[in-house]
Amino acid sequence: QVHLVESGGGLAQPGGSLKLSCDAGERIFYIYHMEWLRQAPGKEREVVASVTAGGIPWYTSSVKGRFTISKENNAHIVYLHMNNLKVEDTAVYYCNIPILNTRGQGTQVTVSS
Asked: Can you give the pLDDT at residue 12?
């Protein structure tokens, strides 16, 4: 069974940057489409970025131009580079593999001055 572990969350100021990591421990990201989800307090979970097994990225409009999803060549880590952070980016961020119905435990991102 695949086990996803997120890391890299924390506190950032508006305009700052954070880099999230999702480690699957095995080379699966060249096989499966994966997503970065986030859930803010009182809001529904949303997909913010995804990448296909072949490396094609997608971004929700609110993060386009600010967030970048990338994969390590070893294909067991996927990153979410978050730049120009906004207060509204505050949420718990999860990595998710929809076809396996597998999601990590999440990492908290807080953007505040």
From this structure: 98
In this structure, which amino acid lies at residue 40? A
Per-residue pLDDT tens over the stretch 40-61: 999 999 999 999 999 999 999 9
Burial 46-81 (b: 16+ CB within 10 A, else e): eebbbbeeeeeeebeeebeeebbbebeeebbbbbbe
Dist. CA 29–CA 27, nearest whole Å:
6
Residues 6+ apart with CB under 8 A from 39: 45, 46, 91, 92, 94, 106
Distance spanning both ends of the chain, measured CA to CA: 40
